[in-house]
Amino acid sequence: MVRETNRHFKFDWITIILFLLLVGFGWLNILSASHTGETIDYFDFSQPYGKQLIFILLTFGLIIIILSIEAKFYERFSSIIYIISMVSLVGLFLFGKNVNGATSWYAIGGMTLQPSEFAKAATALAVAKYISDLNTDINRFQDQIKTLAIIIIPALLVLLQNDTGSTIVYAAFFFVLYREGLPKMYLTLGIIVIILSVFSLKLGFLITSIISAIAIVTLHFLSKKRPPILKSIAALIFCIGLAYSVKFFYQDILKPHQQDRISLWLRLEKDPEKLEQMKKTFAYNLNESEKAISSGGITGRGFLEGTRTTGKFVPEQHTDYIFSTVGEEWGFLGSTMVVIVFVLLILRILHLAELQKSQFSRVYGYSVASIIFIHFLINIGMVMGLIPTIGIPLPLFSYGGSGLWAFTILLFIFIKLDSNKINEW
Fold this sequence. Notes:
The protein is mostly helical.
């Protein structure tokens, strides 16, 4: 009896408490961002805060189910879970509902379900399963390709649904692969691609090519172990080709609204009139979000006292722009506390991942931390204007049943795996 009782208390309660803090505080901000009058009916289920309350209550039932299932189930059936998830993504092209230009939802009765949110957990399980296989060596090119295929398949399916934000999240798995031994060459290559892309857009193709040539020639002659001339030439051709490709992709592939968002982010547009027009159109949300955050000051205006929040200046503030509510009503101190809780959650997951006895649990734990980190980084950066506007929710915080349940599944599967690490020897 004692053993059976102790089994229920070996879950990592620090992670669970951090989860509850984010969900609870998130609901308060959803309430503030979505209420419509002076008197608040907490059980008005026609309002987003009322619906979110139902989602939260159902979440506890979901947690009980996840923690009740044997830990080995998630590893044993990870491939099947992944296949089912991919089928659900493909099904959207036939039965999906289009919302705001993205065909990412199934309409079920009076509610909608977004399978792309759940696909992240399914992909994390599949990646963990494949990498932990005894026959897999992440240093082998063929295994790298197979792992990449597992990640790219759902990313492409989501991209074809016109959901760019959710597609970018799959870049989180790069951190996981790097932890498991992916050659540093890929990290170096990734950094170079990012730098050259920004340079190409900011400085132009010609100047970027000249800078690349100077850098490669300098490195070639200053390096102690001088690389073969053919490698240096190949590197130069790659840099010039990338600079041209980025410019071509930006001008001829991206849609006008996507170009405008990048242009605003990199300050490419110099015409004052067009900048003012941008702020009134596609950049309206961002502009109002920045005003709301800055108006909060150090301590904020107080719960339900944010004038820009109650005045509905920021459209759909309870979803992707929920952090602007935190900034206005809870100020710098409240915003900092939210960031700290997120950082603590991510660090706690990484700490637990390193303690795992099995590679499957460790890889999955790193996947969980990386996915939450990418969502957190992009959403807050987007709301503050530090990165281009991308439609991506703040984990466990933004309004939405699919997002809340998907992150709950993602996190609590790991909590279950962590509770079983004693039996993994």
